[in-house]
From TrEMBL:
Protein family per UniProt: Belongs to the TatC family.
Residues that span the membrane, as ranges: 27-52, 72-99, 111-141, 161-186, 198-215, 221-243
Protein encoded by which gene: tatC
PANTHER family: SEC-INDEPENDENT PROTEIN TRANSLOCASE PROTEIN TATC, SEC-INDEPENDENT PROTEIN TRANSLOCASE PROTEIN TATC, CHLOROPLASTIC-RELATED
Topology versus the membrane: Multi-pass membrane protein
UniProt KW Cell membrane keyword: yes
Keywords on record: Cell membrane, Membrane, Protein transport, Translocation, Transmembrane, Transmembrane helix, Transport
Biological-process GO terms, alphabetical: intracellular protein transmembrane transport; protein transport by the Tat complex
Protein name: Sec-independent protein translocase protein TatC
MF terms in GO: proton motive force dependent protein transmembrane transporter activity
Amino acid sequence: MIGDIDDSKAPLLDHLIELRGRLLKCVYALVLTGAICFYFSEQLFAILVHPLKEAFGDGGGKLVYTKLYEAFFVQVKIAFFGAFCLSFPIIANQLWAFVAPGLYAKEKKALLPFILATPFLFAMGASLAYFVVMPTAFHFFLEFQGNSSGLSVEALPSADAYLGLVMQFILAFGISFLMPVLLMLLNRAGFVTRAQLIGMRRYMIVAAFILAAVLTPPDVVSQLMLAIPLLLLYEITIIAIWFTDRRAAKIEAAEDAEGASV
């Protein structure tokens, strides 16, 4: 009896040891990329501040920090943010390497495209935020500068507040663009069908605008720039599911025909 219990524990311990090793690799990747990003934090911040610089135009504009330690912690936040972005492929690879041995070949073939699409879709969302949404939003925000009741109104954003806003934009758009992966996985798992997604279209419209209102700053421009791509991605996902369902039906029909002939 004791031998049976020990034998049953061995595989679990092996999995835990493997999980520990892969988690350590993820931590090492985060620490290494974090150190590199901290060393180049000024250059990275210059890239992140570029949309605001363009929005200010030739007139200049400036960032301030209201606490003595704020500039240092801005660099630390940039290091953490950069480390997350750079080490994400390594983390995803370690997760896949841990999960893959427990999957059948058919399951591996089904999941691998989604894992490969995740960083691509995140980069698409982050690029949309950086190159389109942030410049447009910053131009909109800076239009409120001028004179009010004889007083000069000037935008003096703090470095920490600006970095938080940029991270909010990039993460909100990057994560939101992963919606097709989530819906496709739910469809493959049998939780939702294409017909159900079509039936939920009206609710998705409401949900997209609610999500945009929560994830973006409280201005209509930013909210529309997130809600509209989400709705487009939803429709593209429905079309993609139609293709995958059609392909799966053909494969199943071919297998049935082969089985009948045997």
